[in-house]
């Protein structure tokens, strides 16, 4: 594998213990350049701790980490310069303006001032904060602070952006605006690692996701592959029909993973293809009367619910 193809983030056997409690338990992870990679899982499952380990902000108890080929514990400044981080609570200087905050972090990132000024202006325009650039950050709403956080990532020219629950506490419109900005960053080739509990958003945004459970990665992959593995299908068809038992009618039909009765005359069919025509054909052939059929993509919500079925959701120590 050439250097250009090497993952930009690599972790092997990564472990973090707090006393006798293991917050991150031997995870293996590789994120490729330009990917949007999602971290999912219940509260306390180890997502934030993993992020802190990747950034060199906490020391692993065991395992290895490489970010852009660097060990973040040995090269914290180099990693900090090339990786943007949006924590849950962004630590801006409230008494300084947006512009002053960005100028300060640009200086820390080693940018010369003329170049920094140009980048800061561009970044503030892109996140639509140009008009309020001179206002103290103390006066900003949460949505504006999050956008300012992305402006910092842009101004630094970060190669990787790590975003910890970037939309938590935002109203629907601010959430949509932030998502659009994250998509733009990704389109520019920035590798994005983000954690969130908004599963529909993660499904639409992420190339791959990792599902954390008790400090381990329980599932990892593209959402379509996870739905196929966990639910047995990428499509969910709901069928309404009278005069037949659909489970019996579809017993030998191809592409079908499961037929689940919902209530009298109504079934859910999990399948790995659009099987509506075949269902209609077999139902009519068996003498049934078909009265309705809908299809949708299987959702990450369902994968998540199935994966954690019967588990205690509070995973805190
Ligand atoms: N400094 C610490 N000392 C002791 N325990 C800690 C510390 N930091 C985190 N933990 C514990 O490690 C576990 C994992 O926490 P972490 O913040 O990584 O979870 P998370 O998946 O990000 O959760 P959330 O969705 O709530 O952000 C939790 O049980 C937490 O209480």
Task: Offer a concise description of the structure.
With 317 residues, this protein is α/β, with parallel strands linked by helices. The chain has helices at 47-54, 76-82, 98-108, 113-126, 142-156, 172-187, 199-205, 223-231, 246-249, 276-285, 300-307, and strands at 9-18, 21-31, 36-40, 62-67, 83-86, 160-164, 191-195, 208-213, 216-221, 235-242, 256-263, 266-271, 289-297. 34% of the residues lie in helices and 28% in strands.
Topology:
Blueprint: E1 9-18, E2 21-31, E3 36-40, H1 47-54, E4 62-67, H2 76-82, E5 83-86, H3 98-108, H4 113-126, H5 142-156, E6 160-164, H6 172-187, E7 191-195, H7 199-205, E8 208-213, E9 216-221, H8 223-231, E10 235-242, H9 246-249, E11 256-263, E12 266-271, H10 276-285, E13 289-297, H11 300-307
The chain binds adenosine-5'-triphosphate (ATP).
Adenosine-5'-triphosphate binds next to strand 2 and helix 1.
InterPro entries: AAA+_ATPase, ABC_transporter-like_ATP-bd, P-loop_NTPase
Domain ABC transporter: 9-239
Keywords: ATP-binding, Nucleotide-binding, Transport
| Rounded radius of gyration (Å) | 24 Å
Structural class: alpha/beta
How are the strands of the biggest sheet laid out side by side?
5-6-7-3-8-9
Question: What is the name of the CATH class of the largest domain?
Answer: Alpha Beta
Average pLDDT figure: 91
| Proportion of residues in helical segments | 25-40%
N-end to C-end Cα span: 40 Å
Order of helices and strands: EEEHEHEHHHEHEHEEHEHEEHEH
- In CATH, the topology of the largest domain is named Rossmann fold
CATH superfamily of the largest domain: P-loop containing nucleotide triphosphate hydrolases
Low-confidence stretches: none
What is the count of DSSP helices, taking H or I runs of 4+ residues?
11
Bound molecules: adenosine-5'-triphosphate
């Amino acid at each position: 594998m050439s250097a250009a193809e090497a993952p930009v983030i690599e972790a092997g056997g990564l472990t973090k213990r707090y006393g006798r409690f293991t917050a991150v338990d031997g995870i293996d992870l590789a994120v490729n350049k330009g990917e949007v990679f999602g971290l999912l899982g219940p509260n306390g499952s180890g997502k934030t701790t993993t992020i802190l380990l990747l950034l060199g902000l906490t020391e692993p108890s065991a395992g290895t980490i490489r970010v852009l080929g660097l060990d973040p514990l040995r090269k914290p400044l180099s990693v900090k310069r090339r990786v943007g981080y949006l924590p849950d609570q962004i630590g801006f200087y409230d008494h300084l303006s947006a512009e002053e905050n960005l100028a300060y972090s640009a200086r820390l990132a080693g940018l010369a001032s003329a170049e920094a000024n140009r980048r800061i202006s561009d970044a503030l325009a892109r996140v639509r904060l140009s008009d309020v650039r001179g206002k103290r950050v103390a006066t900003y709403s949460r949505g504006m602070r999050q956008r300012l956080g992305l402006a910092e990532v842009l101004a630094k020219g970060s190669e990787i952006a790590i975003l910890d629950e970037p939309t938590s506490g935002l109203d629907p419109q601010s959430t949509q605006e932030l998502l659009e900005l994250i998509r733009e960053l990704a389109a520019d080739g920035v590798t994005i690692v983000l954690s969130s509990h908004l599963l529909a958003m993660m499904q639409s945004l992420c190339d791959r996701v990792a599902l954390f459970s008790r400090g381990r990665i329980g599932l990892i992959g593209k959402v379509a592959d996870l739905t196929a593995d966990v639910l047995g299908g990428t499509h969910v068809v709901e069928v309404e029909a009278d005069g037949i038992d659909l489970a019996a009618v579809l017993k030998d039909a191809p592409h079908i993973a499961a037929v689940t009765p919902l209530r009298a005359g109504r079934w859910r069919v999990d399948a790995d293809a659009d099987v509506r025509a075949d269902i209609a054909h077999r139902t009519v052939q068996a003498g049934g009367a078909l009265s309705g059929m809908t299809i949708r993509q299987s959702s990450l919500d369902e994968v998540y619910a199935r994966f954690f079925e019967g588990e205690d959701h509070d995973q805190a120590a």
